[in-house]
């Protein structure tokens, strides 16, 4: 024989529902509590995300130029890139043209960097000649280029330090 489902009994002081109406399942209160807790979690997550994005935007917003920043312009460089292979039987030479400026935090560092410009240009030439056109695709490729040039310039002029490598022009042809 099949068992009948259990119906929650009314507690003392509660009115019993009339005969024709079905009783509410006992889990209704639990569902309401779980739904309320879920809403609190969602709202807390949304508030935390909003706070994070707002604080990140405050840090990533427009930056006022530093008071004592100086720039050193390098000569324009044009180098041929490493060819990925032959295309249609004829190898096509690809070129990279760069205009670079170095940002230093103190104008006094400019006098330290000026005599070392040939060393910096050599480091840049050696690195850029090994690049393939695919290495410079997209913003990620340009970002990697800037970071690698910054690393190489700081190695070349140590103990002086360059804060950033600024690409004034980059052309892959």
From TrEMBL:
Region annotation (Disordered) ranges: 1-27
Chief site of localization: membrane
Compartments where located: Cell inner membrane; Cell membrane
UniProt xrefs under InterPro entries: FliL
TM ranges: 32-53
Record-stated family: Belongs to the FliL family.
Origin superkingdom: Bacteria
Signal peptide interval: none
Keyword Iron-sulfur: no
Protein name stated in the entry: Flagellar protein FliL
């Amino acid at each position: 024989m099949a068992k009948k489902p259990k119906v929650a009994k009314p507690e003392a002081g509660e009115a019993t529902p009339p005969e024709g109406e079905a009783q509410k399942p006992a889990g209704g209160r639990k569902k309401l509590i779980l739904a309320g807790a879920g809403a609190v979690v969602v709202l807390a997550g949304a508030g935390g995300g909003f706070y994070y994005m707002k604080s990140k935007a405050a840090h990533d917003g427009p930056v006022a130029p530093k008071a004592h920043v100086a720039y050193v312009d390098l000569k324009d460089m044009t180098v041929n890139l490493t060819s990925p292979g032959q295309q249609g039987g004829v190898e096509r030479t690809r070129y990279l043209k760069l205009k670079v400026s170095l940002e230093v935090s103190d104008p006094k560092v400019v006098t330290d960097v000026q005599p070392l410009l040939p060393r910096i240009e050599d480091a840049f030439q050696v690195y850029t000649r090994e690049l393939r056109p695919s290495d410079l695709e997209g913003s990620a490729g340009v970002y990697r280029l800037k970071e690698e040039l910054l690393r190489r310039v700081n190695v070349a002029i140590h103990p002086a330090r360059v804060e950033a490598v600024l690409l004034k022009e980059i052309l892959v042809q």
